[in-house]
Write a structure and sequence with these properties.
Number of strands: 7
Distance between the termini: 15 Å
Structural class: alpha+beta
Helix content: 25-40%
Shape: globular
Number of domains: 1
Length: 94
Amino acid sequence: MSSMTIVEEANRDALTRLAGFYLFLDTRLWMEEGNIHREDGPAIVFPDGALRWFVRGREVTREVNTFFYENKWPIKTGLDSTEKLALFQARFIN
């Protein structure tokens, strides 16, 4: 189960190194076993609403955007149903 961390001044440098790109304060980040990871939504949510999707430390944002486009789902609604979540997990997690 991944846990959410909020980027603060004290942890920003370490989390930025882990992500591989700059993280702004108040960015929400989900991690599991030391990797950026989330199975039910984007693993990084920036304060301005930008999303980055990671699975087991690997960024899959481009693939997820393509997945939403192919299914004609608005990215803004995310994985808002059990069907969407199941399809997402089958494609990216399992």
